[in-house]
Specification:
14 helices; mainly alpha; globular; about 300 residues
């Protein structure tokens, strides 16, 4: 039943795109896009995110995430400022970047950049946030304007941006944006700490291990450990992404090979398809764990 509903949603989206492409009337096309597609995605947004998180095969995850992002990107062209659709795209491109970064880092950088663009476009639906950016105000001074309806865009945008920075830590131009990235994830955590089983805390734990203490940005192993512990508590054993990222960022920082091996073993052996509502997160964690195991010699 769930997969049938997902196919209906995607099928309806494709039908709308087809209609807009073959109708000879630009005015009708614009009206249908703005009214029909916009209303449809407002209703289907949560369902789409839920179904994406239910993808239960790592190879299928890449195909499904990549294919769905292509469809939603096309529809986004008709309603470029639609908040829910931009939020969904920010999630899809961040996830897709994480799935391909091992074999194609350059492409992953592009995907992470798209995640940021879509996330910021979604956040700009808030008038005060948008006007502040237009005046040159930094993001970390504007996030307090954003409410619960923006928690997804805040999380996915910061995740895409943060993963982009951590993939190329030598890019000092991007590194200076870290205060804005962390302000977004902090605001998302403030609004809903348990959102997607504490995903914001998982990312922040990795960030704390990534950023040295001397930079004055809250980094260091103790902060990282405490945040990963909070993330693990929020997940209540439902996801293993915190274990995967703790191994990659904290265990490597501390040169703790035993921790690295133990946590990645937990991830790889975690039951497939459990729990159903978070299988994509766990398949992504499993995918990354295998990559980290292959790269172990780089850190130890």
């Amino acid at each position: 039943m769930k997969s049938r509903r997902f196919r209906v949603i995607i099928g309806a989206c494709l039908a709308v795109v087809f209609f807009l492409g073959v109708s000879g009337c630009a005015y009708v096309g614009e009206r249908v896009a703005k009214k029909g597609v916009g209303a449809f995605f407002s209703m289907g947004h949560d369902d789409l995110i839920r179904h994406i998180l239910e993808i239960d095969c790592d190879m299928l995850a890449r195909e499904a995430v990549g294919g769905t992002s292509g469809i939603t990107m096309l529809i986004n062209a008709f309603v470029p400022n639609h908040r829910e659709l931009n939020t969904l795209n920010s999630l899809l491109y961040a996830a897709y970047g994480m799935l391909v970064e091992y074999e194609d880092p350059e492409y992953a950088m592009y995907l992470y950049g798209k995640s940021v663009d879509y996330g910021l476009t979604s956040l700009k639906n808030n008038k005060k946030f948008r006007e502040g950016l237009e005046k040159g105000v930094k993001i970390h001074k504007l996030v307090h304007h954003l409410g619960k309806e923006h928690k997804g865009a805040l999380l996915f945008c910061s995740l895409g941006w943060g993963m982009k920075i951590m993939l190329d830590p030598d890019d000092m131009f991007e590194l200076i944006n870290m205060p804005d990235v962390i302000a977004m994830v902090d605001r998302s955590i403030e609004l809903d700490e348990g959102y997607i089983a504490g995903l914001g805390l998982v990312f922040k734990g990795a960030y704390y291990a990534f950023v040295p203490e001397f930079m004055g940005l809250g980094g260091g192993p103790e902060s990282s450990k405490a945040t990963f512990d909070r993330a693990k508590a929020q997940s209540a054993g439902r996801t293993v992404l915190a274990d995967t990222f703790r191994a990659r960022y904290l265990a490597t920082l501390m040169k703790d090979e035993e921790m690295f091996d133990r946590l990645l073993k937990i991830t790889v052996e975690f039951p497939h398809g459990e729990p159903p509502e978070l299988t994509l997160i766990n398949e992504l964690a499993r995918w990354k764990a295998r990559e980290y195991i292959r790269d172990k010699d780089e850190w130890f």
